[in-house]
Amino acid sequence: MKILLFLALIVSSYSYAQSGHDHQGESQKKDDQHGNMHGGDHHGMGGMHGMHGGHHKLDKTTLKQFFEPLPASIIDEKKNAALIALGKKLYLDPRLSINDTISCNSCHQLTNYGVDSQPTSPGHDGKRGGRNSPTTFNAALHIAQFWDGRAKDVEEQALGPILNPIEMGMPNEAAVVDKLKKIDEYKAMFAEAFKDEKDPIQYKNVGKAIGAFERTLLTPSRFDDYLKGDENALNDAEKRGLQKFVHMGCANCHNGVALGGNSYKKIGLVEPYKTSDVGRFAVTGLETDKYVFKVPSLRNIAKTGPYFHDGSVKTLDEAIEEMAEHQLGRKVGPGFVEDVKAFLGSLTAKGN
Fold it and tell me: How far is it, in rounded angstroms, from Cα 141 to Cα 123?
């Protein structure tokens, strides 16, 4: 099965390379000269440092095949203003934890691209969870939440950490509701956000409010401008990196509006990746889901390290190398890493 999957990736990547670039022979020669890829690159996408203008531009059809720009909004912010305001307050409030020390923002910092920059995050008593805390930015666009996809959306996800004994540590839903009902400001805010409900302070409504707020956390980037037709939104290195990213096969998993977050893949698809975390298997019980995780979004990826489900990879350079090896069975050199890293930098929120 692994061999078949690998061959499928190679064939699909090669076909995209053939359709997306008309100077592959020249690129291959330059790649060999620059030493960007160990053993060359039969996808015809390495070593294009001497190329300019349209030579390293993917055609619009190929771009649309893989990517789409962020929507302007995924929630009516005017209509849901009271709900969103409540959600932001709850997101930032450490009183949702057992000892008033941990909030959603503790692990998913709004001033730090939705992460805490730690391999794993400390909970209310200092104990750490077993997985890296993923960013909440653009997370509402994903097919599901958590690394193993056990929550269907951000509304459901928001309720999990509050009751998690390692994270926020509240004993049960009733305890959370009781705590909130003793806070006058929340009485007013819940009443405003849930006008049609006789008893608005309910645990499920905590998730609805936080989820509504998280749906506003979209981060348009220069890459979105490029997708919309602004050829000058990316520089030459970023365009080279984009082409290499697509032609190598990275975009076979990291695609769509979030460049990921829309599928599940086994880590170590081609070359085994050592981990004791069984991933989605713990959720589904299916043998085929062992070591399978949700493909992370690459938006803001240059700012959200350390990387992977276990937070074991410190740098983006290393992450690029590891993914090429374990998912595609390829050894990549510094030229590839440099250019792809440049492209990934274009996914950072504008103004940052």
Answer: 26
Instruction: Kindly tell me if the per-residue pLDDT of 20 is higher than 60.
Output: no
Q: Which residues contact 28 (CB under 8 A, 6 or more apart)?
A: 40, 41, 42, 44, 46, 47
276-304: average pLDDT: 98
Quick one: 278 exposed, middle or buried, by C-beta within 10 A (0-12, 13-18, 19+)? middle
- Which of these, 89, 38, 91, lies nearest to 331 by C-alpha position? 38
Let me know: does 84 contact 213? Beta carbons within 8 Å: yes
For 169-222, write each residue's pLDDT tens digit.
999 999 999 999 999 999 999 999 999 999 999 999 999 999 999 999 999 999
Active-site residue flag, 167: yes
Compute how many other C-beta atoms are within 10 angstroms of the C-beta atom of residue 121: 22
pLDDT, one tens digit per residue, over 329-345 is 999 999 999 999 999 99
Structural tokens at position 21: 């670039």
CA separation for the pair 302, 92 (Å, rounded): 24
Select which of 155, 167, 321, 322 is catalytic. 167
Q: Provide the 8-state DSSP code for 279.
A: B
Q: Which amino acid is at 114?
A: G
CA distance to 44, 224, 308, per residue, from 52 (Å) = 16, 21, 34
Which residue in this structure is represented by tokens 């081609």?
A: 270
